[in-house]
Write a structure and sequence with these properties.
CATH topology of one domain in chain A: Cytochrome C Oxidase, Chain A
Strand content of chain A: under 5%
Helix content of chain B: 55-70%
Number of strands of chain B: 0
CATH class of one domain in chain A: Mainly Alpha
Strand content of chain B: under 5%
Number of strands of chain A: 4
CATH topology of chain B: Four Helix Bundle (Hemerythrin (Met), subunit A)
Radius of gyration of chain B: 24 Å
Radius of gyration of chain A: 26 Å
Largest sheet of chain B: none
Number of helices of chain B: 6
CATH class of chain B: Mainly Alpha
Number of domains of chain B: 1
Largest interface: A-B, 73 and 58 residues
CATH architecture of one domain in chain A: Up-down Bundle
CATH superfamily of chain B: Cytochrome c oxidase, subunit III, four-helix bundle
Largest sheet of chain A: 2 strands, parallel
CATH architecture of chain B: Up-down Bundle
Structural class of chain B: mainly alpha
Order of helices and strands of chain A: EHHHHHHHHHHHHHHHHEEHEHH
Oligomer: heterodimer
Shape of chain A: globular
Chain lengths: 667, 220
């Protein structure tokens, strides 16, 4: 067994290291946290697995917040002249629904998977910068809380998630809601930006021996592409957010058309970020189901290089199609034509992926587990959304559809049908890996079917409602313009609202599943007969991930350690020669000793709190601003003066023979 | 399918090649490690960060270029720019890149005295540039160019202000680095830490060359 050595704060040793402040004394001016249990082991952790779990839990909480907001919207629209929400509250509701789902659920949930799985999939013990990883997490958490605190502090933002300026400037949105939104997104932007740098370095630099780029598991590949998108898209929205902040608070006129500003500046800046953002949302889900489909089809991923390069191509072209969100803005025929063609072109690499997934299943021995059902659900639902997407790549058709419910239908099919189903697939697939227990398949099936039926009932009718002309973001519709017969939007609005209830119940069943599965017996080490590297360790993985850093010989390393090719004459015939447990046991028997993991730290949390105070300071008072700045500066210097890992002398001395007390019993 | 052999075949001895990014699983920052790309983690991270900074300044510069002539009846660039003065401060900033290079070179030679000296000179030159910018802003303000005077003024102050904040952050980094070097509190490879601050400093310099050319030199 591997021997983990930990820094200690035992008085004897502290006396030794604290007596003289020498250059080698690494505790900085402050002690480091050393707890391995209790809440402190979570709050100050730099372990990518704990950080991943916290990302996931917080994101899931925001999923239900955003879902509740969606239910209120659908309740308002269930009948003509709804009275549940006022016009003002309705505006806040759809703004915060989208903001929450995009920035506080899908992005961080994808970050949860990337954080947890990427180091495991490339054979690393942690990410490249463990403290920055913790900073990403806490900044996101506080950013999300900050945005949502606007509900009780005078009302939330009400300009839509795209927050078109000048509609979002003070005369049209006089509450602090937009300021909360701007500052909160700056915070989550910081989180994404740091996470992007961290995970790119991790994927490029920390791979196990033999793990060439084209042997990387496909989820890690898609996560890598997403981090590049974040790296280059986040700064653009940062500029837009700063300009809006200065306009609202310092009297600048960047977006005031009356003062000669360009009416399209915000739209260009926003969608230059906003379109890559669409792929930021959906590519992690593509990566997840590209792991799930081969596993449950018992076949390798069909055309792995094509899936990799089409993912990269989507990322690249994703930066060149932003103006298709602005076809109705009057860009001129040449721009419209160029962006129209580029938009149709991006359907090609997406189509390549769908064909690859389908051919992965073709001829496979399909195992319809819940994870597989969600993955297949993604293929079907995303294809529907992709097809309606192509219809508004055609600019003349788009001018008909823009700002109607048809668009709402489209992007819910791609974001919910694409991103969210994929994320749920990942949750069911990796649950035993992360928590060492299986989720109930029976409840999982109910979870899946109610969600899939619910989503089609909710978003399907929106195609009809939209083509019948019901505009987006209107807080009521009236009976006398509802239309006749089959195309009566009243009927379809009601269906849609009932569907949203079904969808909501389906989502809650996930929580029920977690609850009923809490006492399940430990899951087998390789419950799905999986293929990739994260399974070459125990479930849940030990704190140091791998007893020995695995050596990589091929794509689907785990599969090839379990199976041997007994085929003849160029025919492949894989036979299982050893179980996953045996593969893992073999690794454990060659464990490395004296593993020093990165040490926990207070500073990421303190720095995030500093940023939170700063953000409130911008809105409320200079005094608060100064306090926030002080905490931030303190944290920055505390951080800089503290080495990433405690010095060797501060580690508990290694014991001979590997005392059980040093071995990790749990994560 | 689940046919299992009783004894797992002998695997090769554990590899002696160090895994990527690690010596023995500790200290991912600062020390030179065997990484997959051969580039240290910090250096790669700094390059990525600077890559994204390009987009930040790209957005700000685009906004300025869009609004550079939109001052209405208010005072415009032609009445404001003092090219010789700004050229002088720009020259100062460029020279600070030279001293930064000297600092990195001294750090690589482990010449502590020169490293501290050149880092301090770099910080001072950066400070001189910032002082020039503050002076310039004061003059412009007296001549009637407030932050909200026109679209031109807002976008000008925002762009150059963001750059100024970057320079200020660089100065703080330089001075903290000198302090930490003297106190011996830099963890890991000192020369590389100096080089990282240098990369950032050169980037801020290069951005200024672009800003100076686009904002001041090209006639409005």
């Amino acid at each position: 067994m591997a021997i983990i050595e930990r820094p200690t704060d035992s008085p004897a040793l502290a006396g030794v290291s604290g007596a003289v402040v020498t250059p080698s004394s690494s505790y900085g001016y402050f002690r480091r946290p050393v707890q391995t249990t209790g809440w402190k082991s979570w709050a100050f952790t730099v372990d990518h697995k704990k950080i991943g779990i916290m990302y996931g839990v917080v994101a899931m909480a925001f999923f239900f917040v955003g879902g509740f907001e969606a239910l209120l919207i659908r309740a308002q629209l269930a009948q003509a002249d709804g009275t549940i929400l006022s016009a003002d509250k309705y505006n806040q509701m759809f703004t915060m629904h989208a903001t929450t789902m995009v920035f506080l659920f899908v992005m961080p949930m994808a970050a949860a998977f990337a954080n947890y799985m990427m180091p495991l999939q490339i054979g690393a013990r942690d990410v490249a910068f463990p403290r920055l990883n913790a900073l990403s997490l806490w900044t996101f958490v506080f950013g999300g809380i900050f945005i949502n605190s606007s509900w009780i502090l005078g009302g939330a933002a009400d300009g839509g998630w795209f927050m078109y300026a000048p509609n979002s400037s003070v005369p049209f949105s006089p509450t602090n809601g937009v300021d909360f939104w701007v500052l909160g997104l700056l915070m989550t932007g910081v989180a994404s930006q740091i996470g992007a740098v961290n995970l790119i370095v991790t994927a490029l630099n920390m791979r196990a021996p033999g793990m060439k780029l084209m042997r990387m598991p496909i989820f890690t590949w898609m996560a890598l592409v997403v981090q590049f998108l974040l790296l280059f898209a986040i700064p653009i929205i940062t500029v837009a957010l700063f300009l809006l902040l200065f306009q609202r608070n310092f009297g600048a006129t960047f977006f005031s058309v009356a003062d000669g500003a360009d009416p399209l500046l915000w739209q260009h800046l926003f969608w230059l970020f906003g379109h890559p953002e669409v792929y930021i949302l959906v590519l992690p889900a593509f990566g997840i189901i590209s792991e799930v489909l081969p596993t449950f089809s018992r076949k390798p991923l069909f055309g792995y290089p094509f899936v990799v390069f089409s993912g990269a191509a989507i990322g690249l072209v994703g930066f060149g199609v932003w103006a298709h969100h602005m076809f109705a803005a009057g860009l001129g025929p040449i721009s419209v034509a160029v962006f129209s063609v580029a938009t149709m072109a991006i359907a090609v690499p997406t189509g390549v992926k769908i064909i690859n997934w389908t051919l992965t299943m073709w001829g496979g021995k399909l195992w319809f587990s819940t994870a597989m059902l969600f993955a297949i659900g993604l293929i079907v639902q995303f294809t529907i959304g992709g097809l309606s997407g192509v219809t508004h790549a055609v600019a003349p058709s788009d001018t008909q559809q823009t700002d109607t419910y048809y668009i709402v239908a489209h992007f819910h099919y791609v974001i919910f049908g694409g991103a969210v189903l994929g994320l749920f697939s990942g949750i069911y697939y990796w649950w035993p890996k992360v928590f060492g227990k299986m989720l109930s398949e029976r409840w999982g099936r109910w979870n899946f079917w109610l969600m899939i039926i619910g989503m089609n009932l909710t978003f399907g009718p929106m195609h009809i409602i939209g083509l019948q002309g019901q505009p987006r973001r209107m807080y009521v519709w009236t009976e006398n313009r509802a239309g006749e017969g089959l195309f009566n939007i009243g009927f379809w609005n009601l269906i849609s609202s009932i569907g949203s209830l079904v969808l909501g119940i389906g989502a809650v069943l996930f929580l029920v599943n977690v609850w009923v599965s809490r006492k399940n017996p430990p899951a087998p080490a390789d419950p799905w007969d999986a293929r990739s590297l994260e399974w070459i360790t125990t479930s849940p993985p030990k704190e140091h991930n791998f007893d020995r850093i695995p050596e990589i010989h091929t794509l689907d390393e785990f599969f090839h350690r379990k199976y041997e090719d007994v085929g003849e004459d160029g025919q492949h015939d894989y036979r299982k020669v050893r179980s996953g447990e045996e593969v893992i046991a073999l690794e454990e028997s060659n464990a490395e000793a004296h593993i020093h993991l990165p040490s926990p730290s207070y500073w990421p949390l303190v720095l995030s709190i500093g940023m939170l105070i700063l953000a409130y300071g911008v809105i409320y008072s200079t005094l608060l601003l100064a306090a926030g700045a002080a905490v931030t500066v303190l944290a920055l210097f505390g951080w800089a003066l503290e080495p990433p890992t405690a010095d060797d002398s501060e580690f508990e001395p290694p014991s001979d023979g590997g005392q059980p007390s040093k071995e990790l019993e749990h994560v | 399918m689940s046919e299992t052999t009783t004894e797992p075949p002998v695997r090769p001895e554990p590899d002696t090649i160090l895994p990527a990014g690690y010596d023995d699983g500790q200290d991912h920052i600062g020390l030179v490690h065997h990484t997959t790309t051969g580039l240290s983690n910090t250096k790669l991270a700094m390059w990525l960060f600077l890559g994204s900074e390009c987009l930040l300044f790209g957005g700000l510069i685009s906004t300025y270029m869009l609004y550079r002539n939109r001052q209405g009846d208010a005072i415009g660039p032609d009445q404001l720019w003092d090219i010789p003065f700004t050229s002088a401060t720009s020259f100062v900033l460029l020279m600070s890149s030279l001293t930064m290079v000297l600092a990195v070179s001294a750090a690589k030679r482990k010449d502590d005295g020169r490293t501290h000296l050149w880092l301090t000179v770099t910080a001072l030159l950066g400070g001189l540039f910032l002082a020039g910018q503050v002076y310039e802003f004061t003059v412009f303000y007296r001549e009637g160019l407030g932050y909200t005077t026109s679209l031109f003024s807002s976008s000008f102050y925002t762009l150059t202000g963001f750059h100024g904040v970057h320079v200020a952050a660089g100065i703080i980094m330089l001075m903290s680095l000198v302090g930490m070097l003297i106190k011996g509190r830099v963890a890991g490879d000192k020369a590389e830490t100096v080089e990282m601050v240098g990369l950032y400093w050169h980037f801020v310099d290069v951005v200024w060359i672009v800003i100076f050319t686009l904002v001041y030199l090209i006639p409005a």
